[in-house]
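## Example record

The block below lists the input lines for one assembly entry, exactly as stored, with component labels intact.
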Amino acid sequence: MVPEGVVALLEILLFPGFLFLIALAFFYEWVDRKLLAKLQNRYGPLYTGPSGLLQPFADFIKLLSKEDITPKAADKFMFSCAPLFLLSFPLLALFLVPVAGLKALISFEGDLIFLMFLFTLIAVTVFIAGWSSVSRFSTVGGVRAAFQMLGYEIPMTLVMVGPAIAARTLSISQIVGWQTHNAAWFIWFQPIGFAIFVLCLLAELEFIPFDIPEAATEIVAGWSTEYSGRKLALIRLGKDVELVLAASLITSLFLGGPNSSLPILAIGFFLLKTTLAVVLLTTLRALFARFRIDQMIAGAWKYVIPLAILQMVLIQLGFGR
Amino acid sequence: MTEETTEENEIVRKMKHLIGKNVLESEVPRPRRIFILVNEKAFGKAIRYLTKKMGFTHVSTITGVDVGKEIEVIYHLNRGGKIELSLKVRVTKDKPVLPTITDLIPGATLYEREVHDLLGVSFEGHPDLSPVILPEGWPPDVYPLRKEWTLKKVQKRIMKGGKQ
Amino acid sequence: MSYPTIRIPFGPQHPFHIEPEYFMFEVDGERVVSVTPRIGYVHRGIEKAIEDRTFIQNLYLIERICGICSNAHTTCYTQAIEEILGVEIPPRARFIRTIIAELERIHNHYLWLGLAAHEIGFETLFMYTWRDREIVMDLLEMVSGNRVHYAMNTIGGVRRDITPEIVEKIRKGLDALEERMRYYKKIAMTEPTISKRTAGIGILKPKDAIALCAVGPTLRASGIKRDVRADDPYIAYDEIPFNVITYDGCDVISRLFVRCDEVFESVNIIRYAMDRLPEGKIRIKVPRRVPEGEAVSRVEAPRGELIHYAKTNGTTKPERYKVRSPTLGNIPSLCKMLVGGYIADIPIIIAGIDPCFSCTDRMAFVNVNNNKQWILSGEELRRYAIKWYQKE
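Predicted structure tokens for the full assembly:
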């Protein structure tokens, strides 16, 4: 038998750890780009690998080899740290989500709270990244990111708690376990919660219509304007991992998760459902124009938060489980 | 010729009535086109009359033409999108100063700045006559559209190290 | 109590500008407090260059003032010269000029719609309109042989004829274009994110529009019915019935609707002109030497009133030639619209006037880099380069 320590190490490094997650991140970036291109009547990535499958990876390698410029006026320490955080936080968060089987790599009672905390940290890091670059576009982008967080953070937290209340646990693995055990998905019980969650994830991922912090036509590249080379590569990879995180959270909280304790079946279900989630996010992204920051926040506070609270009330009244 | 032509002639007649001999030349080459050359002294009165009383509220553009010792400034005024009246006035190159029309038509700001840039006519009372088309550091006495500044001469001037 | 304001530069290079142009915005939070435009970055000295070339050579130079409204510029130029020459072009040429002018307008408005969608972050609409723009570009290529600089106009007429087969193909293309534009207009009317970003944005009251001398669709979206084609008919517009589109919303979405409806009008104008295309020659011979004279020529370019002033001195070269493109006329109104708006609305408001900065910066003559003071043109640059390397 292989010693347990080696298995644990392999799990963290290879599957379902770093290697698998990063490969998945590149794959979903490809899915996102290709599908968006198809929806917009373009071709999308075409040449690297079959149907451009390797294009995200090629872009990553290319960016790694590019010149890395740090602005003179920037806060160098924070400026260099931010990309690392932006990659490591979503990766860490993904370890809390079950991928193969019903149990995540790290799982403890209350890991849902920890995950929410990580989500907030990502938004704060984005703000710090923008602020520490000093450039005016970055500053405005960073401030917008922080503003946007005010809009989506609260409804997102509220609707993430929905499944937790219904399953009477604060552990993501156990929420998945509850859904598998009862053969019921929360999307059927909490459709409002699901819709709000997807909406907030669009904002978290800075996808259209909420790509306000990086609105190209207004503030160049927003908070990431000053980043280049390796740091930009890390930021982009971080964004991709965040997409995986978003898709797997949709899967775990609302679509029943891997749904099987058999690893092969579980991973199959997981891939299928997360791909569906990515397709959903991408399709939504192709449908809208960009909101303005004030419209976004007003909308969030006027409509989304009351709806999220309504969902909570419905759960309490017994409709959500 | 047509009804419209008489309308144009009517405008010319009114102008002549207003400032008399100060209308140096006038011409109606075709319907909806009027050219009037006025004396520099009467220019202020003429343009005020045209914009306030005659309804020429739109200035299409302002052209500057180098005509030897003088610079001819042409105000292309328009009434209701139809009649295009070109009001000309000449100023000497030694002291090319005209009253601004931005108080009458605010939309003329950029046109006046443009003429100031390229021909060196300054407009008294204009809020800001900084360069709008020429780059910063352009030699202040070089007015590209004056005939004495040929391409060669300007190139030579700027190549000389660009000292201002 | 006053808060410090941030100054945000827009340009000269900015992803939203296709051409270099500079706006300095003073913002308080997300609100714009003041705007200072600075034009002249693509200043190519065309007006001076025109004085140095013959009338035929100028045809090509003037075509290149602008890429999108190249035909409007040459129409205006040929008209001015023909007026001084005192020649009347054949009716068939007038109709062909009209057809090309309207095709160009359709092209421009499709292009604009895509850009506007891009500015408000609606990438999908951008991709769709630009795909459909290909239809009209193909039509223009079929007629003129070129996609951008059509080179159809010449002094005394047009250079190429429109054959019955081409007419058939244009008809088919027009059907598709009309149907697509109907679809886009429906989207613009029903899609809430579009109206959220464009309705009530960039207000230009009719009073201000007149005072600041706005032109074209910008003016017509403020409810003022002014169109050179109707008011001061040129080429064949006096024989073709059409409506001048106005909306009185005074905001960006009204400008959008004006342009959508103008596409329908253009389609009808082209159909009408093709039905009644007169027989005959397409051009007449004109002398190379133009007598002394002057002319003011006006054209409704897709972006608004375009005015050229020509003064000739009896030689083969013009004495003075002045061009005022629509964008320059709209910049004062643009500054008015921007003040008080949000940063996020800057791109769509600027795009709302359909700016073309290459048109705007056409005068003077050498392009000078203002820091190092060296000339970017021809021989001088070469000499400079040689000198530079000798120093090394």
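The domain at 46-323 of chain C is CATH 1.10.645.10 (Cytochrome-c3 Hydrogenase; chain B). Chain C touches chain A at residues 6-9, 14-16, 30, 117-125, 127-128, 131, 191, 193-194, 196-197, 342-347 (CB under 8 Å).
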